[in-house]
């Protein structure tokens, strides 16, 4: 196993949806590592949807924008739909002013709405269910 | 030269102190004669101003600061000139009238000096001294006047920007921005910022931009609209443009502006209907999971 661990970003699986996020410092190397890891996971887990949370990103330059577009295309080829969620207002304004387009990338206001769009619904909690926590 | 200047200065100072009343009277009369005063100021107010300025001048001349820099560096004198100018700017006097009023003090001062000496050389150097002193004051008053006006203009345009771009919540998850007036780069920026912030705060799914109050749409305005729509989409919300009047639809078509990727409606009511439909679709899907859907 190659174990690409350079990004340090967790990729969670919720049913057939993968949930992950981007942190502020994204350089060439970690972008490649992240792309590798995510595509591996999509193929291995047979994911139908991917949610990428970018609410921590304070700036999106052309490199990050291209990475996001490439990820979307790659995931589509692997049979998964990508939703980018939680873009900040300031980031959206900067992107528009720079003329950068996230062509083909679907967006959602926050992770919750993104997951809803991917068809993953919050189950109403059955009454009387005992919650499990680590101390038990 | 230096000694003669200081002696002239002493003489001027003396004249100012001894004939304070006379100078002030003459100055007020001069201003009234030249009709440089606006109707808003009473003679009494002008007289008060004159007393203040003359005493500030006298104390300034008594110090050892060079005449040219007297107005700029003596705080009391500077403040008096600034206040005088600001008061007149607010009262609606023209900039010419304001600086002419300050400059007419020259004549009043010189005629006072004339009474104290017969020596023409001394009188001449006194005239130069007074000129230097009051030219600086005149320039300062003009500058203050312009600054005061500038500040008023800036404040008004800022207020106009804020007043004209409210973001209102029309429905659950639906926001609207009624745009009124022309759309330029600065306003687009303000609209975009407040709209995106409101979308984030309200978790809105649809934003309606109503352009009923926009008098004309050209390529630049369309460009600004497209920018706003793109930014809203990047945030993950949808955008509807409403209030497109027939003449504007004609212009848009004739200019060949492509708004085909944007949902447009003729009236705000239609747009609201479309927006509610847009927000309902995911809610219907989620209806199976979410028990509470009114």
From TrEMBL, chain A:
Pfam families to which the protein is assigned, alphabetical: STAS (PF01740)
InterPro entries linked: Bact_StressResp_Reg, STAS_dom, STAS_dom_sf
Domain STAS, residue spans: 7-118
SUPFAM superfamilies for the chain: SpoIIaa-like (SSF52091)
Highest taxon in the source lineage: Bacteria
PANTHER family, A to Z: RSBT ANTAGONIST PROTEIN RSBS, RSBT ANTAGONIST PROTEIN RSBS-RELATED
Name of the protein: STAS domain-containing protein
TrEMBL record, chain B:
CDD domains: STAS_RsbR_RsbS_like
Keywords: Phosphoprotein
Domain of life: Bacteria
Domain STAS: 164-275
Pfam families: RsbRD_N, STAS
Protein name: STAS domain-containing protein
Organism: Streptomyces ficellus
